[in-house]
């Protein structure tokens, strides 16, 4: 089976395997096409997803502060986007943003966090460093708690006395930043 450049790759593992086998059989041919490139990219993407640890897969998503549900009434809120790090199967990329539709964003942070461990009592723990302080991200029961050895170190990323320290609930969909 060969995909045309305009077609989207099939999402199932069986179909991606078939595409990989088909593209591997074309390696000996001098006639390569964009279909082969598309198949190879789909296979490489599958390898990246498969390399992510189960702990990382469990925490990937968007998390929001309690006031997110009242965003239409003008309440300030913070969102945390957690994405798998493509270069390290046990790390995540953290993006923290606050609303930016009514006024300038009050909180902004970008960083990488490394898996520290997990257990039943504490959930999944990631660690990063921000403003020369250790920052802990605890994921448990669709809730993210951000804390630090020095709570004031995380005020640096927010204006008006705000902080990214706190609890965030996981959204079923994607966050609406504005």
List keywords for this structure.
alpha+beta; disordered N terminus
Estimated structural class: alpha+beta
Beta fraction of the residues? 25-35%
- Taken from the alpha-carbon principal axes, the silhouette is globular
> Count of DSSP E strands?
8
Order of helices and strands: HHHEEEEEEEE
Structure, described:
The N and C termini lie far apart (42 Å). A hairpin with a 2-residue loop joins strand 5 (123-130) and strand 6. By secondary structure, the chain is an alpha+beta fold. It contains 3 helices and 8 strands; from the N terminus they run H-H-H-E-E-E-E-E-E-E-E. The protein has helices at 13-25, 34-51, 54-59; strands at 61-64, 78-84, 91-98, 108-119, 123-130, 133-140, 143-148, 166-170. Residues 1-49 have low confidence and may be disordered. Helix 1 crosses helix 2 (34-51).
């Amino acid at each position: 089976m060969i995909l045309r450049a305009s077609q989207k790759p099939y999402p199932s593992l069986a179909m991606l395997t078939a595409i990989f086998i088909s593209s591997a059989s074309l390696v000996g041919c001098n006639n390569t096409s964009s279909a082969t490139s598309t198949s190879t990219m789909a296979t490489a993407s599958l390898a990246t997803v498969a390399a992510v640890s189960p702990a990382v897969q469990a925490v990937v998503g968007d998390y929001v502060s309690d006031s997110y549900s009242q965003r239409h009434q003008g309440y300030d809120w913070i969102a945390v986007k957690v994405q798998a790090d493509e270069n390290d199967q046990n790390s995540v990329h953290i993006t923290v943003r606050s609303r930016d539709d009514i006024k300038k964003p009050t909180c902004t942070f970008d960083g990488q966090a490394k898996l520290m461990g997990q257990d039943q009592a504490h959930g999944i723990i990631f660690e990063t460093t921000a403003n020369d302080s250790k920052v802990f991200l605890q994921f448990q029961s669709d809730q993210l708690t951000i804390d630090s050895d020095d709570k004031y170190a995380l005020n640096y990323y927010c204006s008006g006395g705000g902080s990214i320290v706190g609890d965030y609930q996981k959204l079923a969909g994607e966050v609406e930043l504005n």
